[in-house]
Structure formats: C-alpha cells, structure tokens
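Thread title: Can someone regenerate the structure for this chain?

I was given the following input by a collaborator and told the matching structure tokens would be attached. They weren't. Posting the sequence so someone can regenerate them.
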Amino acid sequence: MLTTRMRRLAGLSVTAGLVALLAACGSAPVAPGFYRVERGDTLTKIARDNRQPVQSIVRWNNLSNADSIEVGQVLRVAPPGSAAATPSTASARTRSSAAAEPRGTAAEPAAPPVANAPPISLVWPASGTVVRRFDGKNSKGIDITDTAGTPVVAAAAGTVVYAGNGLRGYGNLLIIKHNADYLTAYAHNRALLVKEGQTVQQGQKIAEMGDTDNDRVMLHFELRYGGRSIDPSRSLPPR
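Best answer:
Regenerated them for you:
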C-alpha cells in the first residue's frame, strides 16, 4: 500500500514538474514595468491586472488598435520612468518565469537554441492549415486550424503525463512523454480522449480540436527536447 502511494505521489510530482517546465520555458523574462502577452490575454485584462487605464497602455505602447495584440508581444504596463510595474498577477507570473529561467534579455531566449538533438520521427498531429510557425521567440510551436472536432492524434508513441486544463493559456492540454528527452504538447482541445498514465501509439486519436482558452478553433502543437522548444516542422513529414 505504501509503495503504491509513493509511486502515485512521485508520478504527480513528475507531472507537475513537466507542466511547470512547459510554462517556464514559454518565453524569456521581461524587464520590470513590462509584460509579455500570453494566450488568452486581452488588453483590458492586462490593464486590470496591472491597475492601469487601458488608454495609458495604448499610449505608452503606441498601439493603433487596442483589440490587436499578439502572443509574445512585450507591452509597457507602467509609466515610462517608473522603476517597476505595479504588483499584480501578471507581474507575479513574470517574476516566477524569471526565477525559473537563467537571466537573459527581454527579446531573446535566455539560453542558446538546442543543438544536435537526436532525431525523432513524428506524424502530423492534425489535418488542417498551419497558420503560425515556430520561431523560438514569440511562437514556441505551430498552430494548425481546422473545424471543431477534427481528430488530434499522437505525433509519436509515448505515455500521457498530463491531461487537464490547469495551465493558463493552453486550454484543454495533453502532454505526451516519448522518451527521456522528448515530449509533445497539444493545446486548446475541445475534448481529451486519453488519461494520464495511458500509453498511446503513434497516430492514435487522443483529442478533438477545439478553442478552449483561445479565440479560434486550432491545435497548438509543441515539441520539446530536454525541456526546450524546438521546431516540430523539422521532425514532421512534408505536407
């Protein structure tokens, strides 16, 4: 009984660590007084979290359209010349990310890109149109759009280490661990069809495409090696 409980606790710890790693590696830390836009953010929410008028943030950042902000965009959320942003949920997330990562500039990843990663053969996780590609800075994966309910399949065989919606900006999320180095993540699903601890085969249907925690139906797909994002297109077959 004790051994079973210890194994369960160890498994939960590993899962929590992987989710934290996925969140922490999402972007480089930004300077005090600034905020990096995350999935699901609106300018109104960012202004509210930082206790600033929307009009001020629009003016400080020379925004032509208050309704058009992009994931990864860095916004000034404190008056020019101030030492730091007003304490808030948003700035707390930024400090948390900064603590989890080595120091770096606001515009570049803190660590160099992954080099010489061993090859992994993937299949496309969903049909549809790729509307956003990996760039290593603002986009940590690729976005594929299609109709709601489009099958989402495992890009490679592995074990489901996370199935839930506890990571802000990812909606209904699956994380599959393929070996000691590689994992893939599948975000914004309408429905999750597999559970944590379940072994899946390459090409097996694991979810249905949706728009949870997002403003459009799509699959956000990430490939990570040693915890760092790499371009999944290099491991996917030509399309």
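The chain has two domains: 34-100, 120-235.
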